[in-house]
Design goal:
Order of helices and strands: EEEEEEEEEEE
Helix content: under 10%
Distance between the termini: 40 Å
Radius of gyration: 14 Å
């Protein structure tokens, strides 16, 4: 059974940090690109970052570039999203997802897979940043 388990969310003050984890099971981890998305209340889900563990390539949305860092541990089948200098506008439910990396695992990432290209989704973890 394929599972993605996102965790690590919580309440933090503006300027603070959190590290989210995405634990995967049921598929070959590095055959997939792992992406992080977020959805704020009343807004559409947006892509935040993604990583190809096989190539070691990452991509970030402009809104988080320089503040967030994505990484992965293939042996642990886990991806991480380190979030620093958090802002109130980062408040959202954060989701991790996995997209087969047939193409994305062969190139340096200049964009992440589109939302509909992801095959598996985690349940989300809530991040709340207070001002």
């Amino acid at each position: 059974e394929v599972q993605l388990q996102a965790s690590g969310g919580g309440l933090v003050q503006a300027g603070g940090s959190l590290r989210l984890s995405c634990a995967a099971s049921g598929f070959t981890f590095d055959d997939y690109v792992i992406g992080w998305f977020r959805q704020a209340p009343g807004k559409e889900r947006e892509g935040v970052s993604c990583i190809s563990s096989k190539v070691g390539s990452t991509y970030y949305a402009d809104s988080v570039k320089g503040r967030f860092s994505i990484s992965s541990d293939i042996a642990k089948k886990t991806a991480y999203l380190q979030m620093n200098s958090l802002k109130p506008e980062d408040t959202a439910v954060y989701y991790c997802a996995a997209a087969v990396g047939t193409y994305y695992n062969t190139v340096l990432l200049t964009y992440c897979p589109a939302h509909d290209d992801y095959d598996y989704w985690g349940q989300g973890t809530l991040v709340t940043v207070s001002s």
